[in-house]
Amino acid sequence: EVQLVESGGGLVQPGRSMKLSCAASGFTFSDYYMAWVRQAPKKGLEWVASISYEGSSTYYGDSVKGRFTISRDNAKSTLYLQMNSLRSEDTATYYCARPGLFDYWGQGVMVTVSS
Amino acid sequence: DIVMTQGALPNPVPSGESASITCRSSKSLVYKDGKTYLNWFLQRPGQSPQLLTYWTSTRASGVSERFSGSGSGTYFTLKISRVRAEDAGVYYCQQVREYPLTFGSGTKLEIK
Fold first, then answer.
1. Is B61 close to A101, i.e. CB distance below 8 A?
2. Measured between beta carbons, which residues in chain A are less than 8 angstroms from residue B41?
3. A62, A102, A103: which to substitute to probe chain B, counting the most B Cβ within 10 Å?
4. DSSP characters for B98-111?
């Protein structure tokens, strides 16, 4: 059974950093691109970033480019999102997902950016 | 960036009736391999999004035949036949033809 389990969320002050993790199981992690998608409270879905099989290629949404870094450790079957210079508008539930079909999603982890 | 525009539904929809949700893209979603890279998702309250269809009209594993996707180029439709209470939630279309990947703003379905 495919499982994606996010962790690392919580409350953080504006301007600070936070790192999210997504532990994958039930499939060969290195065979798939991976992605982060977020959803602000009561809002729609926003794609954040994607990463290629070995991590050599990364792609970012304009709102996070230069501040967030997506990475992966295939030996640990784990996806990461390093978030720097956090802003209040980054407050959202962050989902780990398996693209290009986005057929599997994690349960999401809440990140609240507030002083 | 490709902008995805979704239509609204005349909520609430009576149980047993059909509902159609439209999605328009600002650019053709046909890729050079001939596939059209349009996904549909349902997000039930308090849950993660669930893939319904991909490549415009291919149903995801385990998805009811009551859900059918259609369309081409820049205009797409998700039809839900014989709606049930469990179909309530927000439906999103998403283009995965090119980066940045983009979603529609969502269409809420309420069941009567």
1. no
2. 45, 102
3. A102
4. SSSPEE---EEE-B
The string of DSSP codes covering B29-79 is -B-TTS-B-EEEEEE-TTS--EEEEETTTEEPTT--TTEEEEEETTEEEEE
User: Under DSSP, is residue B7 helix (H, G, I), strand (E, B) or coil?
Assistant: coil
CB spacing of B100 vs A45 below 8 angstroms: no
Dist CA A78 CA A75 (whole Å): 8
CB contact under 8 Å between A99 and B96, yes or no, is yes
Q: In this complex, do B100 and A47 lie within 8 Å of one another by their Cβ atoms?
A: yes
Question: Alpha-carbon distance B28 to B74, whole Å?
Answer: 5
**Residue A18, phi then psi, degrees to nearest 5:** -155, 150
C-beta separation of A104 from A5 below 8 A: no
User: Tens-of-pLDDT digits for all 115 residues of chain A?
Assistant: 999 999 999 999 999 999 999 999 999 999 999 999 999 999 999 999 999 999 999 999 999 999 999 999 999 999 999 999 999 999 999 999 999 899 999 999 999 999 9
Residue A60: how many CB atoms within 10 A of its CB? Answer: 20
Tokens 């009561």 sit on residue: A42
